[in-house]
Amino acid sequence: MYHFGPFQLDPVKRLLFREQQGVSLPPKAFDLLLLLVENSGRVVDRNELMEKLWPDTFVEQINLNVHVSSLRKALGEQPDEHSYIVTVPRRGYSFVATVKKSANGDGALISDVDAPIETPYQSSAQESEAEREDSSVSTVLSPPSFLSRRIFILPALSLIVIAVVSYLWIAATRRPADLQPSANIIAVLPFKELSPEADDHIGLGMADALITKLSNIKQIVVRPTSAVLRYDSAEADSLRAGRELGANLLLEGKIQRSGERIRVTVQMLKVEDGSALWAESFDEKFTDIFAIEDSISRRVAKAVSAKLNAEEENRLAKHYTENVEAYQAYIKGRYFWNKRTGEGLQKAKELFEKAIELDPVYAMAYAGLADAYNLLTIFGDANRHDTYPKAKAAAMKALEIDPMLAEAHNSLAYTRMRYYWDWKGAEESFKRALDLNPNYATAHHWYGEYLTFTGKTEEAVAEMRRALDIDPLSVIINSDLAWILYYAGDYDEAINQCRRTIEMEPDFVVARLALGLAFEAKGMYEESLAQFKYKDMEKLYPSRIAHILAVSGRKKRALQIIKPYEEMAKEEPRVLYGIAGVYAGLGDRDKTMRLLEKAYADRQELLVYLKVDPRFNPLRSDERFQDLLRRIGFP
Questions:
Q1: Which of 61, 97, 180, 343 has the fewest Cβ atoms within 10 Å of its own Cβ atom?
Q2: Residue 13 has pLDDT above 60, yes or no
Q3: Which helix or strand (DSSP H or E) is residue 258 part of?
């Protein structure tokens, strides 16, 4: 047992206590804490931590940063003081608190080491002296620990040899493409508009255009527009943004427009130290903005030494429109689309339609229109029988103009999956989108949903984690990872993921809903119901509350809640699926099946969850239920 401050760390039972009270930690965060505590008093290199925490697996360094941050919060550290974990710039982390050991957790100390803190400026001689001092203290205070070390030294050396050989084999056999993304992760921040009358979102549009171009280069990872939106303000700290986004390279710029002229100043920085790799200014007519974007994207590719193939060269130079007014309408549309609100999506739809009116062969605008129709169904409460067919038509038009447009393939895949239940066609379209643009976070995200709906939950988790590698700050992707873990039956990890998401965005009710349902699945009914006390969640999810009451034995109350919605279903069939879930919890199979059949007749989109929704587990052996799954066409 390790003791530091008010904490006790049990490496055998994998538990952390604060004054006898358990402290919840995700598994990787616990592993990280144990590594730091076992190496207290010395700097543990980031690469060493990455290799030990994620052996045989490629993950980006932001994962380590996230777990360090969660550890600091769990230990109660304040942002301006680190009494446990100290960051050593450009090297790694050091655990600086005094660590004591006890033989079996009973408090009888066998070691009490207060090792000097290694700093980047400490000489090797000082380091050796510190190690000798540390060793002598341990030997004097704890003879038994010295003997026990000798017992385990040969097995430990064997394990080290095995680990080294395994690492070398993995390094030799891993494809370069698997390792490449860690070298160049680029964040393109919205360019800052200096003109007093700037109101056309040209700064965000410039960033979005560059992100679209650069994301076609497979040798780099580019943070998507949705990730950089939060930094669309003049006060945003660029280097801090780069660190938060887990990027090692940052592209930022300033735009000043005067009449028909536009001046763009751009620079590329190393996030680590803020040094500039290059900087350049462009002073052109506004109609030449596409040429400016071409020049910047070529400079970025050159700066990261990307060797482009012919296809990437073509995509980098590609202009989806030559009409500046249509381009402006499109970038404004993307700005409103990224807001993910009903009002914003309606405005986005109108702007995409304007762009198409100005340039009828603007493929990207058609893809934007398809995306707007797809999400209006979810965020705008629109009629799915109207929006999904329109989304499909817009995506097909985009592909007619440009068959190589990843965004259009992804939009089409989403429509095929959600509304048409064309599972084979959806998978083909998702895979085509990812083949054309492996760095497209939304494609990984939506394909992860597809894999979930079809019951391939392990693959779905991996796909969603890939989406997070590209867009680690996305609240919706973080939340949907929690949902997939819930559907996969990994309720503990789903709870941990929900908490991480809520820490990012406390008001994100979708994550709170997932947390409540994960508690329900574990039989923690009161903890589950407590989540629905947050703001208006009781009004938003009455069928979920009724289901929790039903399975926890409060059937009368569940029926009282759901009865008014059964009347509502006569006018609004959308609520049928939720009501069916309640009757499944009440154990009424016949009523459940009648409601599901009505939902099927209305082509309710929530039926895509039917194969994995645990509310319907009691019906899995029912032939009527299996027949319904077959008719929905699940592969």
A1: 343
A2: yes
A3: strand 249-258
Q: Which single residue is written with the structure tokens 């370069």? A: 176
Residue 543 CA to residue 8 CA, distance in Å, equals: 43
Q: What are phi and psi of 579, to 5 degrees?
A: -65, -40
Structure tokens at 135: 């060793």
Which CATH code of 3.40.50.300, 3.40.50.10070, 1.20.1530.20, 3.40.50.150 fits the domain covering 180-319? 3.40.50.10070
Domain 2-141 falls in which CATH fold? Arc Repressor Mutant, subunit A (1.10.10)
Write the pLDDT tens digit of every residue in 36-47: 999 888 888 888
Nearest to 369 by CA among 382, 386, 351, 381: 351
Give the strand pairing for 185-188 and 221-222. parallel
CA–CA distance, 633 with 600 (Å, rounded to integer)? 12
Distance CA 467, CA 457 (A): 15
Q: Is the pLDDT of residue 210 over 80?
A: yes
Q: How confident is the model at residue 69 (pLDDT cuts 50, 70, 90)?
A: confident
β-partners of residue 81 are 78
**Angle 45-49-54 (CA atoms, 0-180°, nearest 5)?**
150
Distance of CA 228 to the CA centre of its chain: 14
Q: How far apart are CA 176 and CA 298, in angstroms?
A: 23
Contact criterion met (CB below 8 Å) for 501 and 479: yes
Task: Identify which has the larger pLDDT, 96 or 89.
Answer: 96
Domain extent listing, the chain: 2-141, 180-319, 541-635
Nearest to 226 by CA among 246, 211, 216, 243: 211
Dist. CA 219–CA 56, nearest whole Å? 21
Give the best-scoring range by mean pLDDT among 128-132, 241-245, 336-340.
241-245
What is the distance between the terminal CA atoms of the chain, rounded to a whole angstrom? Answer: 50
Average pLDDT over residues 217-225: 86
Nearest by Cα to 315 from 417, 197, 405, 240:
405
pLDDT at residue 434 greater than cutoff 70: yes
- pLDDT of 150 > 50? The answer is no
From 500, 461, 422, select the one nearest 70 (Cα to Cα): 500
Instruction: Say what angle helices 310-317 and 289-303 make with each other, to 10 degrees.
Output: 140
pTM beyond 0.70, yes or no: no
Instruction: Check pLDDT > 80 for residue 399.
Output: yes
Q: What is the pLDDT of residue 424?
A: 97
513 close to 486: Cβ distance less than 8 angstroms? no
Mean pLDDT of the chain: 82
Burial class (CB in 10 A: 0-12, 13-18, 19+), 430: buried
DSSP output for 148-184: HHHHHHHHHHHHHHHHHHHHHHHHHHS-HHHHGGGT-
Q: Which helix (H) or strand (E) holds 44?
A: strand 43-45
Q: Residue 130 corresponds to which tokens in the numbers above?
A: 């510190």
Which of 28, 25, 90 lies closest to 54, judged by CA? Answer: 28
In 3D space, the residue among 423, 412, 384, 476 whose CA is nearest the CA of residue 611 turns out to be 423
pLDDT at 532 over 90: yes
User: Comparing C-alpha atoms, which of 621, 593, 589, 618 is closest to residue 607?
Assistant: 593
